[in-house]
Amino acid sequence: LKHSAALRNNNLALASKCRGKIEKYLGKDSYRLEILDFQSRLSVRGANIQVFDAVEGVQKLINKIPNTLEKIKLIHLTLEACKSEFPDWLIEVHQNTTPTSLSEDKSAHRRLIAQWWYWRGILNPTNKLSHWREAISRFKLAECNNAATNLVQLLSKSL
Fold it and tell me: Which of 25, 57, 73, 105 is most buried, judging by how many CB atoms fall within 10 Å of its CB?
């Protein structure tokens, strides 16, 4: 949490210090450290070339994450970084990584499932209406009313 806050505030020194502490706890071979490094590269991005390099480098990482929750989070982070130019491999990995193993009983899982439907609508514009309707419903179930309202507005503008 401290690492993410440091990146959001462009405090790279604190982010680096936090990463060091996390590395001591997890061990230097943890895939979670690679996720932190990817987040760091995205936070200091300037040129689109840097984003492209970071995104292409994350493909192997996504494939080795065993945890569905973390995998989907990283896929969504990568999609967000791409803006609207999504590599084919990223579209494919999103389609193949479904949130079916996530628990509807956990609010974090419900939010992630809603986000997954949102991104599905972005990546598959021919079915955007049905996917976003599902996302809106899921956001409401996750008690993310602002997200649901914003998506309703976005959907109505696109119609």
Answer: 73
Q: What are phi and psi of 84, to 5 degrees?
A: -125, 5
Q: What is the pLDDT of residue 46?
A: 53
Whether 54 is covered by a domain: the verdict is: yes
Closest Cα to residue 36, out of 63, 66, 5, 9? 5
In single-letter form, the type of residue at position 58 comes to: V
Q: How far is CA 30 from CA 33, 36, 37, 133, 141, in A?
A: 6, 10, 11, 37, 33
Stated pTM of the model: 0.82
- Say if 109 falls within a structural domain: no
Is residue 66 included in any domain, yes or no? yes
- The domain of 59 spans 1-70
What residue type is assigned to position 115 of the chain?
Answer: Q
Within a domain: 32:
yes
Cβ contact 91:58 at 8 Å: no
Give the length of the chain.
159
Q: What is the mean pLDDT of each run of 10 residues along the chain (159 residues)?
A: 78 83 85 81 61 76 90 93 88 94 92 97 95 97 96 92
